[in-house]
Design brief:
Layout lengths: L1 H19 L2 H23 L4 H20 L3 H20 L8 H6 L7 H28 L2 H30 L6
Length: about 180
Amino acid sequence: MKLLLDFLPILIFFAVYKGTDDIILATAILIPATALQMAWTWWRTHTIEKMQLITLGLVVILGGATVLLQDKTFIQWKPSVVNWLFGLAFLGSQFIGKKPIVQRLMESNLTLADPIWRNLNIAWTVFFMFMGCLNLAVVYTLSEEAWVNFKLFGMLGLTLVFIVLQGIYLARHLPEDKS
């Protein structure tokens, strides 16, 4: 349910774009859809993750610029900016604080040696930086429609592939069950 809720604004953006071929209208609808998603999350859980707040802020700022200036470039840059900010946060956590972000997020479910946590954190850093660059490559080399498809299917697909590869990596480093 949470995964569907997290992707609901982008699904709405995609549906509006596919129905109208109007990226400005799709963006204008994305902004309140994202705000409503956050309001729903707050109402249900009384918490909102920092990553969600960053995404909402960038949707409002870059989406708002897209709508006000009638320039799709702003919304097309949003995935890159979000990914780069996440990448920088993961990288910074290698040096600031006692644990990298990935460890803070996953350690309640996994027990791993510190070097494995650091490697995993760096992998996420590289992934986020790569995704930001890949988004811009698609923006500037393919059509608007191809970018919209990539934003939903390509980015989601690559993220799922990365998570599966991460699972394979983690499986090699999990403590053995001694039952």
